[in-house]
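Our preliminary data section would be incomplete without showing what the modeling component actually yields. Below, a chain of 236 amino acids is followed by its predicted structure, encoded as tokens that our downstream tools consume directly.
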Amino acid sequence: MINRVVKNVEEALIDVKDGMTIMFGGFGLCGIPENCINELVKKGTKNLICISNNAGVDNFGLGLLLQTKQIKKMISSYVGENEEFERQMLSGELEVELVPQGTLATRCLAAGYGMPVIYTPAGIGTEVAIGKETRKFNYNGEEKEYLMEKAFESDFAIVKAWKGDTAGNLIYKNTARNFNPLMAMAGKITIAEVEILVPAGELDPDQVHTPGIYVHRIFQGNFYEKRIEQVTTRKK
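Predicted structure:
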């Protein structure tokens, strides 16, 4: 019987070293691997290259790693909720690569599928295309220019799921699915933290979003704060 369970977050991240490239699942503060991020802060792992849709907020998510200056470079599609990120970027303390969100997702998929590159029309004629190869393809009877983007390469992918089993199969809850399945596929080593961990065979196979073949380590998290990034209410 396959068993990918590690006993805690410390064991899951034991071989994460300075200077590594890590992919983080989540979108905003939704579906982020809170326990793993907190452990990286505690470990003091530095000079990290982080691939994530965004960079959290000032006091939560990847924002915690930015506060302690443990991130060397951010590869993201959106970073507008973090003042410390803005400060470090404008001062030159932090390297930043902004990637169109669809391109970010597809570069993750390409890594999971074992494809070295993709071609996309997104970014043609903008700063995104500077220094990159382009090619023209005839598609649907129209010749268009496409930008070549490389699949992501990472040392680890760290994701968060609602429920998982000991074989590494994962189920995400509602919008917390977001980038998590893509990151899980793409990691050289994928670590999953879950709210609920059950024995293999207890999950309905038709409900599984990420098959255990993509997951190398899984553990049950201790606590999830699940902050809301922006709360908007209406008057009664």
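The chain has a mean pLDDT of 94. Residues 9 and 36 are 6 Å apart (CA to CA). Preliminary results of this kind motivate Aim 1 of the renewal.
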